[in-house]
Each structure stands twice: as structure tokens, then as C-alpha cells.
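Before drawing any conclusions, I needed to go through one protein's amino acid sequence and its C-alpha cells, quoted below without any editing.
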Amino acid sequence: MKKEHKLPIKMGQLLSFSSKLLVNRFLTDQEDEVLAKIQQEELKERLQLAATKQVLVVLHVATKKSNQYETVSGFIATKKINGSHIIVKSATAKKQLRMIAVETIVKMSQLPLTPPEKPAHEA
């Protein structure tokens, strides 16, 4: 008899937990938006640093088609990152320029800003 009574209790607990989780996620949408803005500002700072140092960058860019990404490599052509777009000069095709929206950049990699230190025996 006890097993029959545990099933409705477990179902009630599961329903209660999922309702609390749903309400919690609904209320934390604002926190997600703030986190996304902070990440965009950090990305802009990294792009600005790469532009001033003329460092080769590799960008993972989301395309308009869903679930597809494009990899773009090159140098940032503008010295100052002001707006929502950047211009990337291709590393392979010297005359190719691409305008990329900052919000479409998923990931950014770059060469080190300072050259690696040589070991003591090579100096």
C-alpha cells in the first residue's frame, strides 16, 4: 500500500520543482542580458587591443543560416572600435576587406601580444 501512495507524492514534488525552476528561469532573463552585454564589452576591448597592436585575429562568426559558423582570419583595419561593426583585412588576400557585426562574433583568438621569452640557454 505504501508504494501506491509514494507515486502521487513524487509526482507532486516533481511538478512543484519544475514550476519553481520555470519561474526562476523567467526571472533571471534580465541577468542573462546583463551578462551578454558584459561579454560584448569585453570582446570589444579585446578587439580594440588587437587593432592597436596590429595582431592577427581569428574570428568565429555566426552566419544568418542557423547553426552554421564561419571562420575569418586577418587584421583589424580600423584603429578604433566605435560602433557595432569592425572591418577585417584578410591575411591571405591582401585586398579583401570584410565588415563584420560585433554581435555575430562567437569566439575570438589572437596571436600573443608579446613575443614569447627565449630560454636562457638560447640567449
